[in-house]
Every structure is written in C-alpha cells, then in structure tokens.
Specification:
152 residues, alpha/beta, five-stranded parallel sheet, two-stranded antiparallel ribbon, 4 helices, 20% helix
C-alpha cells in the first residue's frame, strides 16, 4: 500500500479564495458522485463528509434517500448551500452527531486536507452501516495543492 506523503499545511480557509457562486467544480468529483450513485439503493441514508455547498447532491436526491446529510468545516460553504428536499440537511462538522449511522458515507477529495487522517477515516467508518467511499487526487497525477496537508 502506498504511504501518504506529509506536506506543510498553510493555515488559511480555502473558501477565502473561492467564489460560492461559481459553477466550476472538479471534473473528477462529478464523476465520483455519478459513479457512487450506481451503488446506492433507493431509500438509503447518506452522509457526505466535506460536501462544500452540496452541488452534487442532486445526484443523491435521485435515489430518494431517507436522509441526506452534508457536512463541511467551512461555514462559508455551508451558508451558500441549499437543501433540495425536506430530508436534506447541512451541518458544520463540529455539529454532527458522530454516533449517528448512515447506510452510505462518502468523502470526495477531502482527506488530503485533513491533518488527522487516520482519526478521520476511523470516524467515517464508525458512522457507516453498509458502504464507505473515499476518494483523493492521485499523488502521481496531482499538483500539490496549497491547502493539502498531504498527498496519497
């Protein structure tokens, strides 16, 4: 298994540099969300960790989730989020009940921003009933982002 490669963390909120009204989003992220939906059953509960504004949640809504929760560490991103149904909620990561369980837990292009990556994975796994999906940019094909704590 490849080892993670720690890099220096800059102490800035990447949302200070982002436009919440922008329609731009990583092509890979769109592809991951689309693919994940092939593995989600109708009516399952879904937790998306590091959801930003939840722009790709429309894909999950098509699966009629019993509950769809998006969490993020950026209050700026969450302030710009818009629930798509009565079962769709957004929370700051500090406000998430980490004892709650979800059928599916996703985290797309987030772990490279997390200092305590092992704790992060353990927490996500502990909240998962059926499937956990984690994606990160590939170390060999990714530019080291100034907001990344490490590359994998």
């Amino acid at each position: 298994m490849a080892q993670s490669k720690p890099i220096k963390k800059e102490n800035k909120d990447m949302w200070d540099y982002s436009d919440p009204n922008s329609e731009k989003e990583g092509v890979g992220q769109r592809g991951w969300y689309k693919m994940i939906c092939d593995y989600i059953y109708d009516g399952e509960s879904i937790l998306d960790v590091g959801c930003s504004m939840g722009r790709q949640h429309f894909r999950f809504i098509e699966k009629n989730p019993s509950k769809l929760v998006g969490v993020d560490a950026s209050r700026k991103a969450l302030d710009a989020s818009k629930p798509l149904s009565e079962n769709h909620h957004f929370y700051h990561i500090d406000d998430l009940d980490k004892n709650e369980k979800f059928d599916v837990v996703t985290s797309i292009d987030v772990i490279e921003h997390v200092i305590e990556d092992i704790d992060f994975l353990e927490t996500c796994f502990s909240m998962t009933k059926r499937m956990m999906f984690i994606a990160t940019p590939n170390l060999n094909f990714s530019n080291v982002g100034k907001f990344h704590c490490r590359e994998y």
